[in-house]
Amino acid sequence: MKPVHLRRLGGAVAVALTAGLFAAPAAVADGTGPRVTGTTASPQPRDLSAGTAGDACDETTAPGWIGLTSGGPTLRADVASDVYGPLSAAFSVRDLTTGTAAFDGTGQAYGGTATTTVPGLADGHAYAWNARALQGTETSAASPDCHFKLDLSSPQAIVSSTDFPPSGSGQTSTKYAGQTGAFVVGGTDPVPAGGEASGIACFLYAFDAYRLGSGCAADSVKPGPDGSATIRAKVRQWGTNTLWVVAVDNAGNQSSRVGYTFYAPSNPNPPSAPGDVDGDGVVDILLPDAQGNLQYISASANDTTPNWTVRALAAPNAQRNWTPLQVAHRGWDSSAHAPMDDLFIHEPGSGWLSMYRNSDYGAFESYTTGANRPEECEDATGAVVPCPADFAANWSKADQLLAFGPLGDGPEPSLLTLEGGDLWLHTGDFAYSFDLRSRKLTTGGSWTGYDLVAPGRDGAGNLALWARERATGALHAYAIPRLANGTFDFAALADPTAGVVATGFTVDAYPVLGSSGDGDGDTVPDLWAVTADRHLLTYRGLADPKDLGVLN
Fold first, then answer.
1. Within 10 Å of residue 534's Cβ, how many Cβ atoms?
2. β 436-440/376-378 pair status
3. What contacts 360, CB < 8 A, 6 or more positions away?
4. Is 519 exposed, middle or buried (0-12, 13-18, 19+ CB in 10 A)?
5. pLDDT digit string, tens, across residues 34-52
6. Cα 318 from Cα 321, distance rounded (Å)
7. Strands 353-356 and 368-371
8. Rounded to whole angstroms, how far apart are CA atoms 416 and 464?
9. For 469-518, how does the pLDDT look when each residue is reduced to its tens digit (9 = 90+)?
10. How far apart are CA 275 and CA 30, in angstroms?
């Protein structure tokens, strides 16, 4: 009997059976033997400054850089054959800088891929390489040449600043904590003898060493023609600070972390504005971005570029996401930090109220506390009275949360909640002891279906509450005047249908409506809205909308 020949057809070994005999296959046609179908290098060659990556397997594409690797770069060849049998690949590497052969080797193919690691290549040299597929005694034509350059040296970084001189220099800072300082960064990318360096692509920076990324991440600056760059960063801690900097070259090599330590004095006359979270004296709008981070945007901004973004991981919920949380701010404890807003945070349905103490100029990552429900209730005169029957033992019934700011002459904030269709006011020590009191402001549940907005005090110190009627889009305003004895009159809140001041703010057109907390009619916008397509609008009073653009 003749020997049986097996041929791979359509991914399977087919055997033809005719009249009880195995039929012999046809001869192998041209082009069906071993061949290379693709070649790549790992790590993939790249140029971070140009933002490109690829293997440059032609004669026109500029080759990218491969950085320092363990054992050298790995070359990969995808091989195939229509003839059944084991495959391998032969790799050839040429040093284009010296014009000599640099490496020849083979690799067995597994799953259609053969690899080899190339050791001993020279720093700063340019290389070309190709591969041939091998099967038995057959060898394919060589693949097109691919190209890369090698940078095996880590760059170095240096930092200096006249705004915040280094600790121990004997120089005095010209700026305060909470202000933006200029830090000049530079560095070198060592050039090897007989070769070239990839050059510095960017400088990563962060005040928290753990926030340093890789590549040229968002928190990075690119060097100018002289090789230096200026980092403009707000110093968010009073006292000793460290700015961490890493230089990254175009091959992706990173320098060692450079820690620039300096002293930031506290501002003896800090700017103050209720509603401000970053200490610049301008109220801020806090909104989550599309990734669940919390961003704040100055109410006087011309676009939606955030002053700062609090990462999603800092959110005090199990999801580590700011999007589902109720965030309110207007009030502070000036004995603990500069006059900037703390954050009150509540997850709908949760019995716990969280508070982020603002001791870091709006970074909101350094200190978190929580508050239980007030244990006492009071009447309009401030006298302690038994709590109503519908008083909740925790914050779980708070459908909406609004910061009203200080109601007295001191710095302690107050909170307004909407619970079961009625309004409640909560005052006391939110900062330390949580010795709080609650007061029920309305009865009858008639506030169901309203979105609360707090514009803050006017020039005379009077408060107001705004509310959007969700069913109609009407905006209502309720005066809360300050009385001669220093208390406030909340009688206007008895009828939520009164006081229509604007229309057209429908939920479909403006899913989110809020206020910067600045209701005194000056140059700072009072009302803001987010449109259905995520544009942020700010208003002077209730008119003249300004489109700041699309939110992140």
1. 16
2. parallel
3. 236, 237, 366
4. buried
5. 999 999 999 999 999 999 9
6. 8
7. antiparallel
8. 12
9. 999 999 999 999 988 888 899 999 999 999 999 999 999 999 999 987 65
10. 77
